[in-house]
Amino acid sequence: MLYAASPRVDWASLLRRSFEVDVLACPSCGGRLRVLGEVTDTAMVGLVLESLGMPTDAPRVARARDPTEWLGEHGVE
Q1: Is residue 60 part of a domain?
Q2: Which of 15, 26, 61, 70 is most buried, judging by how many CB atoms fall within 10 Å of its CB?
Q3: Which domain does 48 fall in, by range?
């Protein structure tokens, strides 16, 4: 098990731990990418997403599902 050296864990490490994907590896050469900046202003995020042809509206929130539906015929008794 991996333990964090500090209470804050960067997003790239969390993705690597959770999904076993290294988001900072270059898909072309395998070299290391680095983050040059971040966009946090809501209006600017919308402009960036729009320029990339991505949806700018937040996705619709899905209704919570009943966990017992997963049990079906093979449920634990």
Answers
A1: no
A2: 15
A3: 1-54
CA Rg, the chain, in Å?
Answer: 19
Helices and strands counted in the chain (H then E): 2, 0
Residue ranges of the alpha helices (H) in the chain? Answer: 11-19, 42-51
The Cα–Cα gap between 43 and 25 comes to 29
Structure tokens at 69: 């539906």
Q: Which two tokens stand for residue 24?
A: 């900072």
- Asked if residue 14 belongs to a domain, the reply is yes
Quote the number of domains for the chain: 1
pLDDT tens sequence across 32-76: 999 998 899 999 999 999 999 999 998 899 888 887 777 766 555
Residue 35 lies in a domain: yes
- CA pair distance 26, 29, nearest whole angstrom: 6
| 63 within some domain | no
Which pTM was predicted? 0.48
